[in-house]
Amino acid sequence: MNEFILKIFDEFHKQKISYCHFKSNNKLVDALSGVDDLDLLVSQADRDKFLQVLVTNGFRIASDRGNAPTPYVSHFYGVDDKTGLIVHLHVYFKIITGGSILKNHWISVEKMFLDSAEPLGPNGVYIPSAEADLILFVIRKFIEQPSLIEHYLFIKDFDNIMKELEWLNDRISITELHKLLENWLPSFSTLLFDKCLNALLNPSSTLHRIYLGIRVRRIFDKTVYSSFEASIRRSILFFGAHARGRLGFLRNNRILYPGGLLISFVGSEASGKSTSAKEAFEWLSQRFDVTYIHLGKPEKNWRTKPFWVVIKIYSKIKLLLIKFKKSSSYKIAPSSSLQLNLPNPIVCVLDSMDRKYWLNKNYSSVLKGGILITDRYPNMVGNGLDSSRITPISRFSSVLSKIEKSNYSSFPYPDLVFKMMAPLETTLERNSQRPVPEPELFVRDRYELAKNIKFPLANIIEIDTSDKIEITSLQIKNSIWSVQDHNKT
Fold first, then answer.
1. Which of these, 40, 50, 37, lies nearest to 114 by C-alpha position?
2. How far apart, in whole angstroms, are the C-alpha atoms of residue 113 and residue 128?
3. Per-residue pLDDT tens digits for 58-111
């Protein structure tokens, strides 16, 4: 089990917060290890104390972009600073449930759950009595039955449902369960409950389950949306998710409060920036809406592609002419090494246009609350890596230089910049081990330029990538999560 998670529960106990882990308790050990989210019911009377514990431990609230939040239900995320594990708390102050896709029905069992809760779980985590747990489980599953979509998901997840049901059923006293029903849910007769339970334990026909589900829905008729509106919303959510999956748009739609972030990884060649940027993207995209773009070698956009085609044709013709003249032994003189960082002015302008296009195209996701991670970013002060490189030595180059600088001046400042650095010897050795190494003079020039990277309005964190990869990875994860703290410094 994860020490950070257990520490959070210890603080709940110290603050005498009334709570319980109220769902999927057969998988509680996995949840306490960070494998799955933790479903917590918290007393509204202890809401402020509960939120204070979360804030103190670096938790942040999240929401699903474009979807109205479920009342009384919130998502909180925190990061274990020792392992980088993202911890998800799915918190209920009232139990609004009754479906995998859309939570719509209020089941008034909060006090029953909290009063019956005992520290029986691992490390004294409070869970409700098996009887209370089973009552809500049965209610949830039968509220789902009349919905075509929820019924489909019920069948698809049937094996897991039966495992949880059997785990609960082995632990209950039917006499105690009936007492809870009579005391807390008198409108839900023990006779109807037994019929529902038997229909799950001894799988009955679909029509019979739907019939029982309609009866259960009539009892628990306090809903966020009407049945018709809930069906429409559920269909939109389900088929939208299905379409995105079929089309390969598998990004999560969840965003963190207070809003989006632009995170950039910069540095010299072979400094580890690409590896770190991709790892950060994979880490965050498991939970949140994250986009990754490579600004060092951006894709060609439709405006610049024709020019790139012409340049490619020209380069091939030039190469053929060189071979024809038997000049393949031509080498760049050491004195011209700096020219490796100063390509043709037209190439520089096209690069700036491609970078601007892809940044503008994706930055809207940041303004909508998403996270944008870039591999490389134009230096914001003067000339430097991946920024203005044209020297205005003629009228034509002066015009191109103005266009290039104008493109880069429109770039927004990143919220967080990781400046990836390693000793020159390490950088050269890494480059030599690449499948296609860059020329050494090029790497040395880029290394010197990287020293002067400046982002006056951004939080810059220098990462020594000569350390073990586990150390640098954890440092990056903790820095990303605590970016709000950096904004205060």
1. 40
2. 5
3. 999 999 887 777 889 999 999 999 999 999 999 999 999 887 888 889 999 999
Specify the pairing of strand 19-21 against strand 38-42.
Answer: antiparallel
Contact 263, 371 (CB under 8 A): yes
Residues 6+ apart with CB under 8 A from 313: none
User: Residue 100, Cβ neighbours under 10 Å: how many?
Assistant: 18
User: Cα-flanking dihedrals φ and ψ of residue 371, to 5°?
Assistant: -115, 130
Q: What pTM was computed for the model?
A: 0.85
Residue 34: both structure tokens together: 């960070």
Measured at the CA of 25, the angle between CA 155 and CA 113, to 5 degrees, comes to 105
Q: DSSP assignment, residue 299?
A: P
For 292-331, how does the pLDDT look when each residue is reduced to its tens digit (9 = 90+)? 999 988 899 999 999 989 988 988 887 777 777 654 454 5
Q: What DSSP state is assigned to residue 223?
A: B
**Neighbouring C-alpha atoms within 13 Å toward the C-beta of 370:** 19
Question: What is the pLDDT of the chain when averaged over all its residues?
Answer: 87
Residue 186: asked if its preceding bond is cis (omega within 30°), the reply is no
